[in-house]
Structure formats: C-alpha cells, structure tokens
C-alpha cells in the first residue's frame, strides 16, 4: 500500500468560497418539490419550548462540530460563531433557512434536515446565542416581515422520530470504532482520547447471547480489535452502544460508546507478544497525541478476515507463521469463553486475555498482566492446539467442549458445503419495481426503487455501485454496513428486479468494485473481499484483502470510493479530520493498494 497524493486537509466543499457573493450552491430546481409549498411565516411564528428543544438537538448533532459553542471552538476556523460573529448572508430567519437549504460559500446544503428542523435550529440560534450574547445580529420578526415571505400551506415532511439505527438487524456482528466505557466514564463525555480510554479503532463487536434481531437486540457482547488482535472488552446490559455517531444518529465529533457494564477489558496494545522477542513492546505508529495507530508489522501479526459459522463470527489471523482462528461464546452460566484453534508453532506463543482468573481445557502457564488481564504462555510442543479459555468462572463450572469450527489450512479455508457451519442467513429475495427509460436520444435512464421495506429494517443509504462483468447484475454497498446484489437489470422486458442482501455488518462501506468477478468493498477499516463458500450468494468469509491504513476515532475519517487501474491496483481516498491537525500519515490522502 502506498500514498500517492496528499489532499488538502479541509472540507471538500471549499471550492464554493470562490463563488460570487450571494450565489447559493444548489439551484432551486434541485430542491425537493415540497420546498416550493412551505408556509414559512407559520414556521417562523412557532417559537414554542418544543421547537427550541428540537433546535438544540439539531444544533448539537449537525452544527456544533463546525460552528462550535461559546466554550468549545468548532473544527472549521472561519465558520461563524453565533455568539460573537457577524452574518455575511443575512441574519433574518428566512435567509438563514435558504443558507441551510441551498448552501452558501463554505456552508454546504443540509439536505438531511426537514423544514421544521431547519427553522427549529434557526430559532435556537436566534434565542440562545444572538438575542442574549450577540444582540447586534439578532433579527426581530414583525408582521410586515412575515407578510413578504413566500406563500405556502405545507410544513413539509415531519422530522424522523424513529431511531432507525437501533431498529436495524445488522446481523450478529458489526465492525466499527467502539469505546469500551465503564459506568464512571459514561457519565462524562471526553471528546479527546487519553491514555485511559479503551478504544477498539478497528473493532469487531459480536453479540454473544442467542436470540433474534442481531447485535442491536442483544444483552452480552464482545469487541475484538483487529489492528492489535486483542479482546478489547466484554460487556452486558440493556443496550449495545449509545448509538451516538455520524452514521447512527448523525452526531459529529463523537464516537459510539458501550452503555452496559464491561466486566472484562484489555487495554490498548498488542494482544499477542512479538513471536521473535516474546515481548509486547508496541511498534505501531505513535501520533503527536501520544496514542498508537495502525496495524502491527506483518512479520508479527496480521488479521486475515472473519468467517461466519452458524451465524457467529470466527476471527482468522496470523501470529508470526502460525495461523489462528478464534471464536467467542458464553457458558450456560454467562461466563465469557474464548475458543482458539492454534496451528503448529516452532516458538513459544504469548498472548493477553481479559480476566482476573483463567481456566483452560489443557494445562497452561499463566501470569498476572495488566490489571484485569492474564498473560498466557504456550510452549511449542503444545501446538497445534484447540484451546478453550474460561474467564473468571467458578471452580465448579465445567469447561465447555472444543468447538469444531473450520480449520485454517495455509492460505485458504478448508470447507465443504456438506459440512455444518454454513447457514443461509438472508434467504429472502425482494422483487422491487423498476421504471425503464424511454427518453429520446442516446442516453436512457432507468429508475430504481430501493427496498426500504425489508425484513431486517436495513437503512439503505447507497454509497457505492458497480456491475457484474456481463452487465446483468448490479452490486451496491450502503453506509450502514450492507451489500446487496440486484439481478435482472439488463432484461428490458421485466418491470421488476430482484434484490438480495449478500453482506452486512461492515464498517461504513463507501466504495465497491468488481474485479475479475470478485466483489471488493472499501470500508473505514479495510478493503474486504466478499467470499461465498457454498453458492448461496451470501458472504461466508469477509476476507481482509488489505487493512494497512491507520484509523483514528474521528467522525470524518471516511474511506471513499474504490477504483482500479489496468493492472488491477486499487485506489481510494482517505479523509482528513475535518480541518483538525493531521494525526496519522494516511489522513487526507489518495491511497494505492
């Protein structure tokens, strides 16, 4: 992997700064139809407590990251501070509405906000900041002003009250950046990352208790960090995470945290000792904030991917020359279990595991590590080995039997469709209407409808598109972690196409590419190759084709687009930190793999 171009560390809409004064970014014809029918006067008159409460919520989620607050500066240096700045495009509510709706200079259009939300945040800014702290910029509304506004009878679509991110069935695992926060840490929101924060930057969260609904409906979870190959934490409670983040509730400058009580944790650092030295000395890139980012050297360890076994996740990686597959589970008593399938090693293997006490199915050497951790040492003659670890269980609790999940043989999975473990998870094929193009001229456009009403309540915010080599199928990735295949697009006699969910649980995928008939997806943590092992068109192995780039917790750190050249090399853009200083070499770059 190499960086071939360093981009500007500023928002991509900076070009708008050069537009003539007063020129807005979106033309009127690009707006939704309801915008022409809005009763602006009625919305401006409503300054009730419920409106101001909604406005405060909108400001915190969508505005504070750029504009800041009187106590916390925003991330865009020249964004207006409403408590002491001066408007350049008009300070009356309707002009502010136009700025939000159509954009102006560096202010991008806020297309996700409904009219009631836009006027609510305008009222919040007027009453909270301008009227009290910046009265020279406060605009007093009167009847003459209201009478001159565009006439309309509608209020536009109602703001979305459902928490779609919590309703979605992601499957039993979800990749992302998660902070393992205890009860005390959950009381205070620290936007920085200090030495005590336990973040799984490239986290794979799994639901451990059985039941429908996927990870969002569980009660016990684990998080594995695949840059360091460590079990970052195990927690239980009445909720998975707080769902605060750019791809969940839309909040900026924030990261999702656990809300239950973590009963096991491993602090940030290598999960396995360097097989050459037997030591845990961290060789990752250390940034100016003192934290370590990115994967460990490949000669030390490397994450290879995730395999679905009975809808659970089997983690597949390498330590030195030794292949390891790992699965997490709960005992009948609710004790955390690590199942490790470890290949033959010529050297001692040393790794960290969470727990004040550890029991195993074989005799192992243990020693006290960091607080709440044990260090396990395996001698070469003990390998190969199927190791079962029980963390903090009672002496009377039986150690579960070894699991017969798939062995890893050299560079591929040993598998057979007749062998247990591969289960079709999403059998439904959804037939969705399509309107075929009948336009005059050389170009035709077909209108597709997304299957928003689907059995998994999946949010379908399309982020990437590519086609099969024969042009008969389309593949789409979606921001919330899904990949779908669409069949029947080339048959002009059909008035519907078939949608099938083929992957889920990915970390904000924003690019997809079909290369030599194989599906590759660019995510925040990796380029993943989707491998179907039994021909049911679902992903059974999420192969980490490349996970070399570094990831921090910052909300703006998208990995956008995925393209190839004639030699098959991949290219994608790695975002910067929304006008904040660069922390890692990969911030604000175009990357070639």
Description:
This protein has 593 residues and is mainly β. Among the domains are: 31-147, Orthogonal Bundle (Cytochrome Bc1 Complex, Chain D, domain 2), CATH 1.10.760; 430-592, no CATH class. Helix content is 11%, strand content 30%. It is built from seven helices and 32 strands. α2 crosses α4 (115-133) and α3 packs across α4. The chain starts with a strand and ends with a strand. The model is unreliable at 7-19 and 408-419 (pLDDT under 50).
Question: Which key phrases capture this entry?
Answer:
593 residues; mainly beta; Cytochrome Bc1 Complex, Chain D, domain 2; six-stranded antiparallel β-sheet; 7 helices; 11% helix; 30% strand; globular
């Amino acid at each position: 992997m190499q960086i071939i171009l360093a981009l500007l560390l500023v928002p991509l809409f900076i070009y708008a700064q050069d537009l003539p004064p007063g020129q807005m970014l979106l033309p009127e014809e690009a707006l939704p139809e309801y915008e022409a029918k809005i009763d602006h006067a009625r919305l401006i008159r409503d300054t009730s407590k419920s409106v101001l409460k909604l406005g405060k919520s909108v400001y915190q989620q969508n505005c504070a990251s750029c504009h800041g607050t009187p106590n916390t500066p925003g991330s865009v240096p020249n964004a207006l501070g409403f408590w002491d700045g001066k408007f350049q495009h008009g300070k009356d509510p309707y002009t502010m509405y136009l700025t939000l709706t159509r954009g102006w200079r560096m202010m991008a259009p806020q297309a996700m906000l409904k009219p009631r939300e836009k006027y609510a945040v305008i009222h919040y800014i007027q009453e909270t900041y301008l009227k009290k702290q910046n009265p020279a910029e406060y605009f007093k509304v009167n009847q003459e002003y209201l009478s001159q506004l565009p006439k309309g009878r509608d209020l536009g679509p109602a703001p979305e009250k459902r928490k779609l991110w919590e309703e979605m069935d992601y499957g039993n695992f979800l990749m992302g950046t998660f902070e393992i926060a205890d009860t005390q840490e959950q009381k205070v929101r620290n936007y920085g990352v200090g030495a005590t924060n336990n973040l799984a930057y490239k986290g794979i969260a799994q639901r451990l208790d059985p039941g429908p609904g996927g990870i969002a409906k569980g009660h016990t979870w684990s998080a594995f960090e695949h840059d360091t190959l460590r079990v970052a934490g195990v927690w239980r409670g009445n909720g998975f995470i707080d769902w605060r983040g750019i791809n969940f509730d839309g909040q900026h400058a924030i990261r999702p945290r656990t809300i239950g009580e973590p009963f096991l944790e491993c602090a940030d650092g290598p999960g396995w000792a360097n097989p050459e030295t037997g030591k845990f000395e961290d060789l990752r890139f250390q940034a100016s904030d003192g934290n370590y980012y990115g994967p460990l050297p490949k000669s030390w360890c490397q994450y290879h991917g995730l395999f679905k076994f009975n809808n659970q996740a089997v983690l597949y990686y390498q330590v030195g020359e030794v292949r390891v597959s790992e699965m997490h589970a709960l005992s009948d008593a609710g004790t955390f279990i690590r199942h490790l399938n470890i290949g033959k090693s010529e050297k001692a293997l040393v790794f960290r595991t969470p727990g004040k006490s550890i029991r195993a199915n074989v005799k192992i050497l243990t020693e006290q590590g960091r607080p709440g951790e044990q260090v396990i040492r395996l001698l070469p003659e003990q390998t190969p080995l199927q190791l079962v670890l029980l963390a903090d269980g009672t002496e009377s609790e039986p150690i579960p039997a070894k699991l017969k999940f798939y062995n890893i043989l050299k560079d591929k999975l040993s598998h057979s469709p007749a062998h247990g473990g591969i289960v079709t998870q999403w059998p439904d094929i959804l037939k969705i209407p399509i309107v075929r193009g009948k336009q005059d001229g050389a170009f035709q456009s077909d209108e597709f409808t997304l299957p928003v009403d689907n059995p998994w309540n999946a949010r379908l915010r399309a982020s990437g598109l590519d086609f099969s080599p024969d042009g008969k199928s389309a593949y789409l990735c979606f921001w919330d972690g899904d990949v779908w295949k669409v069949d029947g697009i080339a048959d002009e006699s059909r008035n519907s196409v078939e949608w099938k969910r083929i992957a889920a649980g990915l970390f904000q995928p924003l690019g997809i590419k079909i290369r030599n008939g194989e599906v590759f997806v660019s995510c925040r943590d990796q380029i993943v190759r989707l491998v179907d092992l039994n021909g049911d068109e679902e992903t059974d192995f999420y192969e980490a084709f490349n996970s070399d780039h570094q990831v921090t917790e910052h909300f703006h750190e998208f990995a956008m687009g995925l393209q190839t050249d004639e030699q098959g090399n991949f290219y994608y853009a790695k975002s910067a930190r929304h006008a904040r200083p660069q922390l890692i070499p990969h911030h604000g770059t175009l990357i070639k793999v």
